[in-house]
Write a structure and sequence with these properties.
alpha/beta, 9-stranded mixed sheet, 6-stranded parallel sheet, 37% helix, 25% strand, globular, binds nicotinamide-adenine-dinucleotide
């Protein structure tokens, strides 16, 4: 059965979603909304789509196109309005990250999902990565983690809105790494201390670098170091990772195969260790395709997908907590933010 979908937002990512929805073979695009109607009609023309209702407002397009679900790929400031409206119309929503722009908005979105009984999932597309899943598997062999580090260093010359934002790295990108930390460790955040800063050579107006130290459940410390104005010797977009537990350590450079060394025999100065690597399942869908598969599967079988709003709000709160800590110079209690 093909599920009917209306896309909201016809920017670069809206087009990318349309291509993935077309490619998955299980959905039919029946409508496209953008505040700038011309962008929606242009996207429909460019992608050779037929019989699509377009408009600059959600409700009339939904009335005519009769979708089964909505993809919210508007800019973050619009996510709350679009998602809450769609849920109240009885439609499940899969939306882009970040969930929204404040914790109050995020809680309102979760409540709208509860009250309507409809699924709201945030697409954390970078979770759908075979090597990341393989790394998580290796990490599980280390015992309860005590140390988790992620380094993210790229020299990204985007131009446009990111160059003007207050916290381009933390707000626009770090959600992926913070969310991956929760995924890898299977723990949720409790406290954060963060400092954002902008090196003398930065081409960004806002702070493009940060150090953040999270206290996660069970005593795990997650240390994030990141920079978006760092030229040369780039890390991957997935970050470089080190996980350490009582039985050993596992590393992943964010692109190749992850590796672990676990204690075989404790004797002498250094313990004897076994080396292990894990291969990811290359057949599993990657990125947005993975999000779409999970979302459709949840609709078909009433399961809870990764990124379901009650879960994703915890990754989003890591971003807000880090920014608040950087502003105030104090540790922020993320667990309290979520109450
Ligand atoms: N997962 C990823 O790797 C990734 C990468 C890039 C962007 N994103 C996310 O995707 C989303 C969209 O990003 P983009 O780069 O396409 O942005 P964009 O600014 O190019 O496009 C957003 C579109 O939404 C439209 N819009 C805004 N408010 C609206 C409203 N109320 N109703 C209808 N349309 C509205 C705008 O007119 C614009 O055309 C953002 O949340 C962004 O963070 C995710």
């Amino acid at each position: 059965m093909e599920r009917r979908v209306v896309i909201v937002g016809a920017g670069a990512m809206g087009r990318s979603w349309a291509k993935n929805l077309q490619g998955c073979g299980k959905t039919l695009i029946v409508g496209w909304v953008d505040l700038n109607h011309d962008l929606a009609t242009q996207a429909v023309d460019d992608l050779d789509l037929d019989d699509i209702v377009t408009g600059d407002e959600l409700e009339p397009v939904v009335e005519k196109a009769k979708p089964d679900f909505i993809v919210d790929v508007t800019s973050p400031e619009a996510h709350r309005d679009i998602t809450v409206k769609a849920l109240k119309m009885g439609l499940p929503v899969i939306g882009e990250k970040p969930m929204t722009t404040s914790i109050e908005n995020a809680k309102e979105m979760v409540k709208a999902s509860e009250e309507s009984g409809k699924l709201y999932m945030v697409s954390q597309s970078r979770r759908y990565n075979a090597q990341l899943a393989a790394y998580k598997k290796l990490v599980q062999e280390l015992g309860p983690l005590g140390i988790l580090n992620a380094d993210f260093y790229l020299g990204a010359h985007f131009g446009g809105f990111r160059d003007e934002m207050k916290s381009p790295l933390i707000l626009d990108m770090a959600i992926h790494t913070f969310d991956a930390a929760r995924y890898i460790s299977d723990t949720d955040p409790e406290l954060v201390y963060c400092e954002e800063f902008n090196p003398s050579w930065s081409w960004y107006k806002g702070d493009a670098c940060a150090y953040a130290l999270f206290d996660m459940e069970g005593g795990l410390r997650f240390c994030y170091r990141g920079g978006w104005c760092t030229e040369g010797r780039h890390t991957s977009w997935e970050s470089e990772w080190r996980s350490i537990g009582p039985k050993g350590s596992a590393t992943w450079d964010g692109s190749g195969a992850p590796r672990a060394e676990t204690v075989k025999k404790q004797s002498g100065f250094f313990s004897e260790t076994d080396s292990k690597t894990e291969k990811g399942d290359e057949a599993s869908p990657v990125g947005i395709n993975g999000s779409i598969r999970d979302f459709l599967n949840a609709l078909d079988h009433n399961t809870t997908p990764m990124g379901e709003c009650h879960d994703n709000i915890k990754s989003f709160a890591m971003v807000l907590g880090a920014m608040e800590s950087s502003d105030t110079g104090k540790r922020v209690n993320i667990a309290n933010m979520l109450k």
